[in-house]
Specification:
Belongs to the UPF0162 family. The chain is built from twelve helices and six strands. The protein has about 270 residues and is mainly alpha-helical. The chain folds into two domains: about 5-180, C8orf32 fold (Roll); about 220-270, no CATH class. β1, α5 (about 95-100) and β2 form a beta-alpha-beta unit. α1 (about 5-15) runs antiparallel to α2, α2 (about 25-35) packs parallel to α8 (about 185-200) and α8 (about 185-200) packs antiparallel against α9 (about 205-220). The relative contact order is 0.09.
Length: about 270
């Protein structure tokens, strides 16, 4: 595979069993494709420093809500991390180096900062892929509290999550168990990349969109919707043989897809 060095590092990181993937390193390798001179070690050292400073501020009591309160005060009050509500779709919100440098991010990147800081003080937390909004929670059995890293570390209970979903979708939403299910490390990275993919597609930055889809397919090879999207991007870029291959594979996998008529029409145009 003729990958850039950043892509090679990303590929090597995700070849490990899911639980051994280092999310921070993988996220920095994602950023390194945008910033080729980025030094991941510089940001790993920054996490060491933040964790050491936080350790000094921890309460004597190991009660989870007290620890969350201490993390919140350190990240949001002392360091000034915040959700970027004014320019949510700025791609810099998705690059971990920018999030650390600018103290601004979106739910999933701020969640990653929070998770990594918490991990380093032996308070493990896990990502929760709620539809439309990413949360985290302590990795403690039977503890159903959630933390919204985008909103200053606000603590939520299940009922609060249901209300937040109803607000986001502007209609009553009944909470389903899968809405609050933990995500794997690969799913976490795929969600980060999917955010970037849609930002770049909206901006019509097709080469960068293609790069995000390629990395999603490294995480989850053969996913039909990503093959379709890669094929459509190839088509827009004028890479017609590659476009035809991906779109044909998509139809083979999902012959009755809702967009199958449009895809077949495109394949006919491409000589397939």
């Amino acid at each position: 595979m003729n990958f850039s060095s950043a892509r090679q590092y990303f590929y090597q990181e995700i070849q490990q069993p899911d639980e051994h993937i280092n999310l921070v390193k993988a996220a920095l390798y994602i950023a390194q494709e945008e910033y080729p001179h980025l030094d991941p070690q510089e940001y790993l050292n920054a996490f060491d420093t933040m964790a050491a400073e936080l350790q000094e501020r921890l309460p004597d009591s190991a009660y989870p809500l007290r620890i969350i309160q201490s993390i919140n005060q350190y990240l949001y009050d002392d360091l000034g991390f915040a959700g970027n509500k004014t320019n949510y779709y700025d791609p810099r919100n998705s690059f971990l180096n920018d999030v650390i440098d600018r103290r601004l991010g979106i739910p999933i990147t701020l969640a990653l900062v929070y998770i990594e800081i918490a991990r380093r003080i032996d308070f493990p937390m896990i990502g929760i892929g709620m539809p439309g909004h990413f949360l985290i929670r302590p990795d403690i059995a039977d503890m159903e509290i959630f933390v919204d890293a985008f909103h200053q570390g606000e603590v939520l209970f299940a009922q609060d999550c249901e209300e937040r979903l109803s607000q986001m979708f502007q209609q009553p939403v009944q909470l389903q168990p899968e809405f609050l299910a933990p995500v794997s490390n690969r799913q976490f990275l795929a969600r980060m990349l999917t955010n970037l993919k849609f930002i770049y597609l909206k901006k019509q930055e097709l080469e960068k969109s293609l790069a995000t889809v390629e990395r999603i397919l490294l995480l989850f090879p053969g996913v039909s919707v990503e093959l379709r999207d890669r094929g459509l991007i190839y088509y827009q870029l004028g890479h017609y043989p590659q476009a035809a291959d991906d779109l044909q594979t998509y139809l083979t996998k999902v012959p009755d897809a809702e967009d199958s008529i449009a895809i077949r029409r495109l394949l006919t145009e491409l000589g397939r």
